[in-house]
Amino acid sequence: MKLSKELSRPEKREAIRTLKKAKKKTKNTRMQERYLILIMVISGKEYEEIAELTGRSKGTIVNYVKAYREGGIEGLNMKPYKGRAPKLTPEQEMELTQVLVEKTPKDVGFPAQMNWTAPIIRSFIKMKFGVEYSERGTRDLLYRLNFSFTAPTYTMAKADPKKQAEFKETFERLKKTLS
Fold first, then answer.
1. Quick one: 42 and 97 in the same domain?
2. Which of 9, 36, 119, 173 is deepest in the core (most CB within 10 A)?
3. Within a domain: residue 154?
């Protein structure tokens, strides 16, 4: 039976008033959408029409109505999204973070690499913790651990200033002759 036919006229007015008030009160756009959908349902609109107007499936609308029937306006509240459990424990993530911050790949047994890269980190995780990540999964893990990717920049710590000046002069002369 349709929700709009289950309620008397005063009950519909009260339900719509309550939903509008809740819609105004929340800043969460997903909750606002849920309230709006329920307002349309109680007003007597067909599920197909609501689905077309909102871009939600009919099944989603049915789920909202079911949640509203079972728990009232509180039944519409979203459950926190759990997602898949992380492959590494929090302790392993902390250890990985420490290694990435304090050591180079060479320090932990990789051939003369100056910088950490996703493939090297992926290999390190498999070697150290026995956990396999895809390259994309490794990058996602790094983002979650607040790491970001940057192009490496090199500085010549032991560069001779005289030789650098000579090179610049020679380079400028060559540029002029080639232009």
1. no
2. 36
3. no
